[in-house]
Amino acid sequence: VVIPQAGYSEHTESELVEKFTPMVIKWVHRLAYHPSLKQEIEDFRNIGLTALIKAKRNFNPALGVPFEAYCSRRIRGSILDAIRKRFSGSRTMGAKVRKIEQAVYELTGNLDRQPTEAEIADHLNLKIKQYRELLDQVQKRVYISFNDQWARVETDESIEEKLDDKQPDPCVEAGNRDLQDLIRARLANMNPKQQKVIAFYYYEGLRFRDIAEIMEITESRVCQIHTEAVLSLRSFIRRIETTGAKII
């Protein structure tokens, strides 16, 4: 099914669904990878398809944005909103996230390198098992915040600005490019397991289940490694922004 930019409204909703279902599935797999969401994959797919139909009805060609890009943004946003509702965390959970981030931040400054799992646990006065349990507790909060940020990096920012009826913001565009550069720089200094999880998920688009099979570990352990890696990235970005420290 070919849907011309100017003639999208002439096509039926079933034709749109046929053409854009792969896009919906892509965003579901990209955003709803968390193990606790496994039973809701079909729900997220339906949410994405509903967003597609709404996009057809609301699309305005005068914005100068390709229909496919418009759909992608609406589908992504609807799925993220649904996940946020399921993962709405308490202030206590936010405090736990900040506690780990602060530990990584302080240790990185003191050691002039990324701290190990054992060093972070020791800094928090926790045993390794307790530290991993803490990672399990905060992973949902970390998951949604970073995936929202990464999804925006993957999207053409000029399209985002047009849809928001604003002029493209060079600072935002530069910030997205900087985020990608910082992640690549930090990736080189992570331990091998973190490197694999981040590379497999964010750059190769693999699901946690697939990564677990490749690395021959449990999916739960992949989640823990991902959470620790993302918190390390966030701490690293904070350090660069607040101190102008060199990339290590």
From TrEMBL:
Gene3D superfamilies tied to this protein: 1.10.1740.10, 1.20.140.160
Single biological process term from Gene Ontology: DNA-templated transcription initiation
Transmembrane segments: none
The RNA polymerase sigma-70 region domain, residue ranges: 16-86, 96-166, 187-234
UniProt keyword DNA-binding present: yes
Record-linked CDD domains: Sigma70_r4
SUPFAM superfamilies: Sigma2 domain of RNA polymerase sigma factors, Sigma3 and sigma4 domains of RNA polymerase sigma factors
GO-annotated molecular function: DNA binding; DNA-directed RNA polymerase activity; sigma factor activity
Pfam families cross-referenced by the UniProt entry: Sigma70_r2 (PF04542), Sigma70_r3 (PF04539), Sigma70_r4 (PF04545)
Membrane as UniProt keyword: no
Keywords: DNA-binding, Sigma factor, Transcription, Transcription regulation
The protein's name in its UniProt record: RNA polymerase sigma-70 domain-containing protein
Species name: marine metagenome
